[in-house]
Automatic annotation (TrEMBL):
InterPro entries per record: 6-PGluconate_DH-like_C_sf, 6PGD_dom2, Mannitol_DH, Mannitol_DH/Oxidoreductase, Mannitol_DH_C, Mannitol_DH_N, NAD(P)-bd_dom_sf
GO MF terms, alphabetically ordered: oxidoreductase activity, acting on the CH-OH group of donors, NAD or NADP as acceptor
Pfam families, sorted: Mannitol_dh (PF01232), Mannitol_dh_C (PF08125)
Signal peptide: none
Record carries keyword Lipid biosynthesis: no
Name of the protein this chain belongs to: Mannitol dehydrogenase family protein
Domain of life (superkingdom): Bacteria
Domain Mannitol dehydrogenase C-terminal as annotated: residue spans: 287-478
Domain Mannitol dehydrogenase N-terminal residues, every copy: 33-278
């Protein structure tokens, strides 16, 4: 039998109910309070789960979610056939199964933009939240709206039919502004520092092209709290579907899998209407920046290091790579000497033990987190995760040797994939491949040309010879490092 409302109704009666958690609120009463853009696995393993937990505790059915995928029609159809229900498989020493009910229904932006905008216009909608990855913010290297992106230009010219997340927000605000309805708030949930502030500035920049009065209205009426989100969520695989079927006896076409740990820190802004997420363990604070920097540099920074170095060593998953003691020591030393010193710890957070806990999370054999998944979009991730601490370390006179090794490994990863003719998943793939194809064997020149690709490295760092020399030197020493890490 397929997961859906009829099955949910039976949970209370059948034995499977002992194996799983399931919604205990009146799903038929759920209103749409949140429109979420980006219906990938991460939203469904994280924010939708926190919301489900809050709904279970409060029975406050104002906060159902309308999930908007950008293109994935199959996900939308499967979720809607299951009345929005899906299984969250928590993979620790044992598997734990939760049927999540906070998503009421799903839409696809590329084929149903009118319905998406009509939903955002509903008076019950108080918030639009997003998990659209770094590239969804359409920012340039200065963190401002990148008007060279074709879809951004499209949205400025045709705001009624937006394609980008920024455009959907602007179009959503525009209809409320035109109809004199109250604004909604926006909750950015992606791995970028000051995610809310940056999204706000991109939205306002686009709105300014449409109507400056609209831009000032958004500026004064809408809140964009900054957030930190954390939960390791590998892609759903056929094993995930099989685990649900084997353990629960029903089929779910769109389950998600994740680690037991999940954290969500949200800037505490007055007037931000939301579910009672604090009852589900969400932390509201005025120092999100400290948590964001710590998580982005310690977790995401070492993730990217593992992704490039691990792939070059022939590993497939984070678990495989971190199970090599030498790789683990390299990562531990990178953390101790170059990453942790670059972070101002938020009050109450001990960075060394935070980092230890993260390394333990990587050593979870039940999580198959593919290095290639993390390696994607390096041109957007490396600046935030690796170049930002490099820049600060240079200013403070600290070492950047190991961070430079990560940059060198990223470049080598791109070189290796280009030579093998493998796809490079990156919005700047074309420019990256072009740069590699022009390599002439003069390492200093090649590295400089690669790092000069438009919009990857900010100008001040590009002009900094300490940085360039350090990456060139790391590139020369990379083979030795890889050989040392590979030696058993
Ligand atoms: C990862 C993140 O794919 C990546 O770039 O570093 O998705 C990471 O797993 C999450 O941020 C964990 O919270």
């Amino acid at each position: 039998m397929r997961l859906g409302e009829p099955l949910l109704a039976q949970f209370k009666l059948n034995t499977h109910a002992q194996l799983i958690d399931y919604p205990k609120y009146q799903r038929q009463d759920l209103q749409i309070g949140i429109v979420h853009l980006g219906l990938g696995a991460f939203h469904r393993s994280h924010q939708a789960v926190f919301t489900d937990l809050a709904l279970n505790k409060t029975q406050d059915t104002r906060w159902g979610i309308c999930g908007v995928a950008f293109r994935n029609e199959a996900l939308k159809s499967a979720l809607n056939e299951q009345q929005g229900l899906y299984t969250n498989v928590i993979c620790g020493t044992e598997q734990h199964f939760q049927v999540i009910g906070s998503i009421k229904h799903a839409l696809v932006a590329s084929s149903q933009i009118d319905q998406v905008l009509a939903t955002i216009a509903l008076p019950s909608v108080k918030m639009v939240s997003l998990t659209v990855t770094e590239k969804g913010y359409c920012l340039n290297e200065l963190g401002q709206l990148n008007q060279e992106i074709a879809d951004v230009q499209h949205d400025i010219a045709h705001i009624e039919q937006p394609k980008t997340a920024v455009g959907i927000l602007v179009a959503g605000f525009k209809q409320r502004f035109d109809n004199q309805q109250p604004a909604f708030n926006v909750l950015a949930c992606d791995n970028l520092p000051d995610n809310g502030d940056k999204l706000k500035s991109a939205v306002i920049a686009m709105a300014n092209h449409i109507n400056p009065a609209l831009a000032s209205w958004i500026e004064s009426q809408a809140l964009f709290p900054n957030t930190m989100v954390d939960c390791i969520t590998p892609k759903t695989e056929s094993e995930t579907l099989n685990a649900v079927e084997a353990n629960l006896g029903f089929s779910d076409l769109v389950p998600v899998q994740r680690e037991p740990f999940a954290q969500w820190v949200i800037e505490d802004l007055d007037g931000f209407e939301r579910p009672a997420w604090e009852q589900a363990g969400v932390l509201f604070t005025n120092d999100v920046a400290g948590f964001e920097r710590a998580k982005l540099r310690i977790l995401n920074g070492t993730h990217s290091a593992l992704a490039y170095i691990g792939t070059l060593l022939g590993y497939e998953t984070v678990y495989d790579a971190i199970s090599n003691d030498k790789v683990r020591s390299f990562i531990a030393s990178l953390l101790t000497y170059e990453i942790i010193p670059s972070i101002d710890a938020p009050t109450g957070l001990d960075l060394a033990s935070y980092a230890d806990d993260i390394l333990s999370r990587y050593q979870n054999p039940a999580i198959r987190h593919l290095l290639l998944q993390i390696a994607a979009d390096g041109s957007l991730k490396i600046p935030v995760r690796t170049l930002a601490p490099i820049e600060e370390n240079i200013k403070a006179g600290r070492s950047i040797e190991q961070l430079s090794m990560v940059v060198a490994a990223w470049i080598r990863f791109v070189v290796a994939r280009t030579k093998q003719g493998d796809e490079i998943a990156d919005p700047k793939a074309q420019a990256l491949v072009l740069a590699v194809n022009r390599f002439n064997g003069d390492v200093a020149q090649d590295i400089k040309a690669f790092l000069s690709i438009d919009g990857v490295v900010c100008q001040s760092l590009l002009e900094n010879s300490i940085f360039i020399d350090s990456v060139v030197s790391a590139y020369h020493r990379l083979d030795d490092l890889l050989a040392r890490l590979a030696a058993r």
